[in-house]
Specification:
This protein is an alpha/beta fold. It is about 45% helix and about 20% strand. It contains 5 helices and 5 strands; from the N terminus they run βαβαβαβαβα. The chain has a 5-stranded parallel β-sheet with strand order 2-1-4-3-5. About 30% of the residues are buried.
């Protein structure tokens, strides 16, 4: 199974980039991983919320393959414990999912088409975080899930 982290927005600030690189390298001990930072459409600042979500949605839908397993990070999604995330990852691996995509949408979220395409909607928290911090939290939590599945010492209960 290959893990893909997709995020709409700017590239990482240096203060989060180092952490993301550390956890990405660690995850690669368990699964191949790829980051895809997707730039917002040109003239995004001149568009209203619905226009922007529609354009970003069309771009994303065009990138997602039929058999990709799409996990949409969404504040209205299901919350998981770290152990629950580990179980979720292991279930996808057991199902022989080729590609699992964790998608962090744009500033206004994602279009209904992307929401409807998602196989799972996951909420990290009821709090709202900056997108770049979500990337770091996502990478750390995926690494934690991998260590839980291997009974390694990183996660303490």
């Amino acid at each position: 199974m290959k893990i893909h982290f997709w995020s709409i927005g700017k590239s990482n600030e240096s203060y989060v980039d180092e952490g993301i690189q550390i956890f990405t390298k660690r995850i690669q001990n368990y699964y191949p991983i790829q980051w895809n930072i997707i730039n917002s459409p040109k003239n995004a600042g001149a568009m209203n919320e619905n226009e922007l979500k529609k354009m970003e949605g069309e771009l994303l839908i065009g990138m997602i393959k039929k058999d990709d397993y799409l996990v949409l990070l969404d504040e209205k999604g299901k919350q998981l414990s770290s152990e629950g995330l580990a179980d979720f990852i292991q279930q996808r691996a057991n199902e022989s999912v080729k590609n699992i995509i964790f998608l962090i949408g744009g500033a206004f979220g994602v279009s209904n088409e992307v929401i409807n395409r998602a196989n799972f909607k996951w909420s990290l928290s009821t709090l709202v975080f900056p997108h770049q911090l979500v990337r770091l939290i996502l990478a750390e939590q995926l690494y934690r899930a991998c260590t839980i599945n291997r009974n390694e010492k990183y996660h303490h209960k």
